[in-house]
Amino acid sequence: MSERAIIAAGIALFLAGAGFPFWRNAVELPRPLELRLPQGQRECVRPVAYMRTSHGDLLEDWRDRVVRSGERFFTAPDGRVRELSLVRTCLDCHEKAGFCDRCHQYVAVAPDCWNCHVDPRSPR
Amino acid sequence: MKITRKAFLALLAVVTRAFGRPRRMAMAIDLAKCWKDRGCTRCAQACHAAHNVPRIPDPRREIKWIWKDRFENAFGRESAGPAVAGAPVPLLCNHCEHPACVKVCPTGATWKRDGDGLVMMDEHRCIGCRYCMAACPYGARSFNWSDPRPFLRTIDPAYPTRTRGVVEKCTFCAERLARGGRPACVEVCPPKAMVFGDAADPSSAVAQLLQARHAFRRKPELGAGPNVFYLL
Asked: B201 vs A1, which has greater pLDDT?
């Protein structure tokens, strides 16, 4: 084999290796995020678009209102008076494992809510 | 109709008396009743179950919100005559009028609530410096040296656990008061030795007890103004 062929093969191998992240994602599209949505529930406490972008802000606002101001209840859009509570309001409909954890894992964030707050579906 | 200055002031006085008066939540513990069963630990059991307080065997690392200690340890050897020496006294956060823990906290993680005087604890803001533990003259605060969850046999999801590196203590059951309830220890005490209420309201049971009975507090000479009173 000529030198030229060896060099060409080497370059091709290098490009294949270095470009792996690009061509792999071009060939195989990322798997869509599948969340286990609450069953039999129509409406969240805020519009879905707001919750997608800002649920963290909402939870921090709730946290400060409960812990710092002693405010414990709010009126949901459906008129029900509900608690400002991650565990007793959010997790009343949403599943931690199939909803919170799955999405947080997908986008690679690790909020520390669950260091203290407890999932009632699996309290351990 | 014209409101005169006099009528306005009278109205203002009525309104401020009705709404403006800050409450001062306090507890009175009747030791004679408590000592009917000296081995009873129902108050601590109920509190620790309601708040996911772990049972850690190592006394240097234990977590406690309410516990019992000997009379002389609570009130000093000088005030422990033979009649009371060795008797177990329930101890908890005193929710002081001038809490030293609040003064030293660098992050505002512990503070005295305006409306009712509860000394609150916000574990979200606690950085684990333990200044408050050094400042508290009553040993009412505990530090989480490790994750408390392995030391909990059961976890009540209705109340959060704590995490490694934060300080915790009794909150006079702020979460139960918010729902119109009473502290868990008060609720469960078999001889009803603990009475909880607004000491600033002369008609409350606790204020009347403090008027009628001989009440004393732990280390009053320090000027912290504890709001847990003991009756004998």
From this structure: B201
User: What secondary structure letter does DSSP report for B143?
Assistant: E
Walk me through the domains of chain B, giving residue ranges and CATH numbers: 21-231 (3.30.70.20)
Which residue from B185, B178, B191 is spatially nearest to B228, judged by alpha carbons?
Answer: B185
| E strand intervals along chain B | 25-30, 66-70, 88-92, 110-112, 119-121, 142-143, 167-168, 194-198, 215-216, 228-231
Supply the angle between the helices A3-18 and A20-27 in degrees, to the nearest 10. Answer: 70
ipTM of predicted complex: 0.85
Q: How many CB atoms lie within 10 A of CB B110?
A: 25
The pLDDT value given to residue B1: 65
pLDDT per residue over B61-120, tens digit each?
999 999 999 999 999 999 888 999 999 999 999 999 999 999 999 999 999 999 999 999
pTM recorded for the entire structure: 0.85
**For residue B23, which residues of chain A lie inside 8 Å, CB to CB?**
none
Query: Which runs of consecutive H residues, i.e. helices, occur in A68-118?
Result: 91-93, 102-106
A122 touching chain B per CB within 8 A: no
Q: A124 CB near a chain B CB, below 8 Å?
A: yes
Task: For tokens 């494992």, name the residue.
Answer: A97
Interface residue of B149, B162, B176 to substitute, partner A, most A CBs within 10 Å: B149
The answer to whether residue B211 neighbours chain A at the CB level (below 8 Å) is no
